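Many introductory courses stop at the sequence. We go one step further.
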Amino acid sequence: MEMMLRLLVLSVVTPSSAGNREGRSPEGTQAMQIEDYFDFISADEIKIRGHRIWIEDVLYEHIFREMQPSDLVRRFPSLTLEQVHACLLYYLHNRERMDQYLAAWLEHGRQMRLEQERQPTPASQRLRALAAELAKRQPSETPA
């Protein structure tokens, strides 16, 4: 695991320094820091820089749906493989804090769904009524 992290850290450099095989940045360039890939809106909001995608979106798919980096690039086509690896590396470097971050995000989503069930919006009420109406119109599919 540590070797994988070292390889990922070495690969996260600016494009102009990526070709340097000795691992040193050419004069006038600097290696990127992993945090450079993200916009830290607040302690509870980490967005992938330049995108409308949040780090929890990528991490959820990787952790709970077991998607591999190449699958994540297909799932989020505006992200590069490098950005996906940056998300995973950031998670691995900050695992305890990120596990808490994800748990809070999942709990917030659960609470919001419960609230929507208790107090549905007028649009949700109309959709539910339409769904019930359609269900009444369709013949029952019961085995003979």
